[in-house]
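Your task
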Amino acid sequence: MSRPQREPRVILGFHAVLARLRAEPRSVLEIFLDESRHDARAQEIAAAAERAGVRLLRVPTKRLDGFYGGGRHQGVVARIETRSAGSIEELLDGLREPPLLLVLDGVTDPHNLGACLRVANAAGAHGVVAPRDRAAGITPVVSKVASGAAEATPYVMVTNLARSLDELKQRDVWVVGADAAAGADLYAADLPPAIAWVLGAEGEGMRRLTRERCDLLVRIPMRGAVESLNVSVAAGIVLFESVRRRAAPLS
């Protein structure tokens, strides 16, 4: 098994930085805090950095604005050391319960990816999978939108998504796609505990090869005038439906 590769990057905002300090303090290299901020949130960051033994630098606002590309940093930026999520096989081998995965096909907007990671983490999903050629990577914007979920939820980028879905099926994980044109209703469909939910980008949907790999296609019932949902909203609905069924007592 190859060693996980590490690469430095930055995360922005109080939620993302605090979440990283609490989850993996050793991975935080240094923190830059706006020298003009002395409020409770700034004090919380400073105290957490001191407890973790992380170097904290007070810097002018303009340095944060310019040095990191003008992102909405809220006055705090951290340089961190990241570890790759490894492979799907490594992810599944580490589980002690039926897998609950989210697969994103064509989600290239960092705000959408961040929101999907956040909802996947909230639902207790074991990981998020995406193709390298049609997906956003983990950027400061993604981390900020995810509010700590980008650091807590494995994000596996694969070379060939169709082949990866076949590998999931060989591991007895059902591949279920959410599609507005599907005949089966989400709430009436028979869903197994081990499941990988597949969603495509809003408007484009899943690619043909991805759709063909699905064991089942279901639609989310729409009661109003809108025809589609944002991908992160749809992800939340299907993931929490799986969570609800897992929690339901056996009849």
